[in-house]
Specification:
single chain, 99 residues, mainly beta, OB fold (Dihydrolipoamide Acetyltransferase, E2P), elongated
């Protein structure tokens, strides 16, 4: 049976090929992606327990150290925190916005 397989190892098989939901796993079709090194402008709308500012961008949560509540900042994405969250550093402070 193994001589008829087209792949050498069962652990290296592309599982998306066998799935009926393959388009859910296709990361390349998403054009609203955020990647490390991107510069974006966000509004800090909340502060977490560590004192980091929290902003939203394209359904992603962006954590920004040393950002205050109600501040618009230009940030650079430096690290992925979770599936839908990133950590960023402030490049420029664009001003306060009253919430």
């Amino acid at each position: 049976m193994t001589k008829y397989r087209r792949y050498k190892s069962p652990y290296n098989v592309n599982i998306k090929r066998f799935s009926i939901y393959s388009n859910l796993y296709d990361e390349s079709s998403r054009d609203d992606r955020v990647s490390i090194g991107d510069e974006i402008v966000i509004l800090i709308s909340d502060v977490d327990e560590k004192g980091r500012g929290i902003g939203k961008y394209l359904n992603y949560t962006i954590y920004v150290p040393r950002a205050t509540l109600g501040e618009r900042v230009r940030v650079r994405i430096v690290r992925r925190e979770g599936r839908d969250s990133f950590s960023a550093h402030v490049i420029e402070r664009l001003g306060e916005v009253r919430l």
